[in-house]
Amino acid sequence: MPSLNLLIQSAVSGVLLGGLYGLIGLGLGLSWGFLGQINLSHFAFVFLSAYLSFEFVNKLGIDPLVCLIILPPIFFFIGIFLHWLIRRFRITPFNSLLLTFGLTVIIESFIQWIWTADFVKLQTSYGDKKASIAGIYLPFAESMAFIIAVLVAVLVHLVMKYTDLGKAVRAISQDPKMATAFGIPQAKISLGIAGLCTALAALGGVCVAMIYTLNPSQMYSWIGVIFAVVMLGGLGNPFGPLIAGVVIGVSEAVTMVFVNPSWAPIVSFSLLIALLLFRPGKL
Amino acid sequence: MKQSNYALVIIAGILLAALPWLNIPAFWQSFLYIVFYWGVLAVSWNLFSGVSGYFSFGHGAFFGIGMYTVAYFCGHLELPFLPILILSGLLAGFFGLLIGALVFRVKNVRGELFALLTLAVTFVIATIVLNTPIDGGPGVYLNSVAIPKLGPNAAASFYLMMLLLLIVSLLSAIWIYASKLGLGLSAIHDDEDAAEVMGVPTYRSKLIGLFISTYLAGMAGGIQALFVSYVTANETFSISVPLFVVLMSVLGGTRHWAGPLLGAIVITGIQYFFTVGDSALFGKMILGFILIVVILFIPNGLLGNFARSRAKKSSLQIVQDILKKNDLPQEKKAVSKKDQVLLQTKDLSKSFSGIKALQNVSLEIYQGEILGLLGPNGSGKSTFINVISGHYPATGGQKLFEGNDITALSAHQIAAKGITRTYQTPRPFNELTVMDNTRLVASYAGNVSLDEASELAYAALKQVGLEDKADSLPSDLNLHQRKFLEFARALAAKPKLLMLDEVLSGLTPSEINSSVELIQKIRSQGTTILFVEHVMSAVMALADRIVVLNHGQMIAKGLPADVMRDPEVMAAYLGKKA
Lengths: 283, 578
Description:
The structure holds two protein chains of two kinds.
Chain A: H1 4-35, H2 41-60, H3 64-88, H4 93-115, E1 130-133, E2 136-139, H5 140-162, H6 164-174, H7 176-181, H8 186-211, H9 219-233, H10 239-258, H11 264-278
Antiparallel strand pairs in A: 1-2
Helix pairs in contact in A: 1-5, 1-8, 1-9, 1-10, 2-3, 2-4, 2-8, 2-9, 3-8, 5-6, 5-8, 9-10, 9-11, 10-11
Chain B: H1 2-18, H2 26-52, H3 59-76, H4 81-103, H5 111-131, E1 140-141, H6 154-178, H7 180-190, H8 192-197, H9 202-228, E2 230-231, H10 233-236, H11 240-252, H12 259-276, H13 280-297, H14 304-325, E3 341-352, E4 355-366, E5 370-374, H15 381-388, E6 396-401, E7 404-405, H16 411-416, E8 419-421, H17 434-445, H18 450-464, H19 479-492, E9 497-501, H20 509-524, E10 528-532, H21 536-542, E11 545-550, E12 553-558, H22 560-565, H23 567-574
Parallel strand pairs in B: 5-10, 5-11, 8-9, 9-10
Antiparallel strand pairs in B: 1-2, 3-4, 3-6, 6-7, 11-12
């Protein structure tokens, strides 16, 4: 039986990691819920951003926190361009899944071409920093990811609930044609959401680079857990993915205390299956 | 047409099987092996996923189960290869059944969710394999396993085994495409809810399809395991298997049994070209790019248009064959027994999370009558039809049909009992011809073979005047014709009870007249009709009795003239006096 301290430490790590799950899941869920697109390339963008951060920090000596400011705007425009392409060709949701699958493979090959398939690690002084409260460690990068995730979720929530823009977005997600008929600039707003989602992927990517050792094919191992987060959290509420991320993060971390960490992918999947079977209406 | 396809595949197979004895260059033999290998995977994927629209991204998982079955039983336990090969297919197939039994129960898991779930399954299987003695991490060597001697050398044996499996896969695909099962799966692809209501046992059909598909994938994995002779989890469960099979099938065209094979040939060729040039990474990038271009510019695939014209031709052929026989089933004259109850509901209720759409509706429909079901918008008429047809399960009360309790039956079982319906907004299966739409329903709801169903379908099409459109696609029809296609589908099943949901709405006066005549004719042949309608002239002309719903409750029933004078009915339609 592991010590209480170890259990609490795992749970705290799980909460922090869950924040990162929520951050990546939020971008995916927004484009699924509001644009009706299942964007597999979200994971590729997370990793592209992670590798760019690695390049900026290790080769150019830029502070990783600066990457948090420069990368999202760049990815915002990439997202807009991609969505413009998808709109132009009037692609069905299912074909958007296939199309972004193709894009994912292209980006993965591109990353492998530039940075090789070897493992790389972003070197930064933040890596060692951690706060300690009552013997429980709070590593800097994980805590930062969690705080960003909470801030983004609160911000998205406030915008959706209290601004005209937010109301327009909700109107579009319910009935795009009717929204357009009432004068909502549907095309522009959709492009904006798509850009936002990709920018969130960029934010997530910087955090991933600060926390993990990177390898291009790892992007696929995130798919299962993040989709579990999105499905558990639902598509409507920005806090949904965050809460679901924390639930999955904690379950994973606590399970790892008892069994070999390489069993991790089973946890989120089991939760997903359990959800499907017992609360099918939630999806 | 089906027979000639079988013959084509078998003859081509025999010719290819002779190659190893003709001393073809080793390069071509190994290249052809790779083509067969991807051919099996793509064709087996497509015969379920392509036909039904349930795109599995987990084909790699089932393929991997086959690989590790051979790796474990032949590599670790040193059992002979051929019996284990059979087992590898079976294990993959049963695992497919298990996954299917779990996820197909959930109504929300349609195309996209299924794709993601199956993708996740792949990583779960990989995790299990890596963390148990099945592999444990280092991979499994199969060098010491004896290769069955089928050809002049080991390479030829692999070539022959994979060729045989490809032939089996193609024959299965041809069979599925021409069978009742395949037609049912195509209907699921286009509109699963309507398919279930029209009598297709959707759950069972999907399970059978998934089993065949995963069984073949497992066999391919078994052969491939021995071929590569060193099996690792990272290679086996990588993203390339699902990527390639989806790409090949979409490129070749999922609507034709040979589409995935064509895709496999093209993609393997491209892939080989780049591997020879030592730029495998570039090749992968090109594949991603091809997938995008195909989705954007030829979403139906290379054989898409060909498949469509073939489907039209075969529908035309069916009609010509029937006309040659020239002995259409004679219409029976009705024996109308108006005192016998056909359908009875007792306190039937349906609520949607608090909203009571139907409250304690108790009514009976007599054999041979036309019952008009009226009520303002939102009064529960369509819900009533949906509950009777089994699309929505009732939340309370009972349904009795010919004296038997049908409350607990699922929609396709109710359809098979002889209850069919039409939709207010026509819901044809868009990728199927008018003939296929009709004979599909006749076959499933009427419980007859496809051949018999074709004759029933032709008779029904003739009755509604669509016999010349048998080879058209629903998108080529106008609204009136699409409504009549709804009629034809419902009639072809020879229903005992036909439920018509606002068939007249949106039609011109002359179209309404011809529809009213048609309904009278249907009744004169002995079919009982439940008739939801707003066009009052038609209701008064047709209905023997009328039932009025308001806010989910029955407020009146009786003869049309009496019901129309009922003060409560007038209030429901016109509002109460202050």
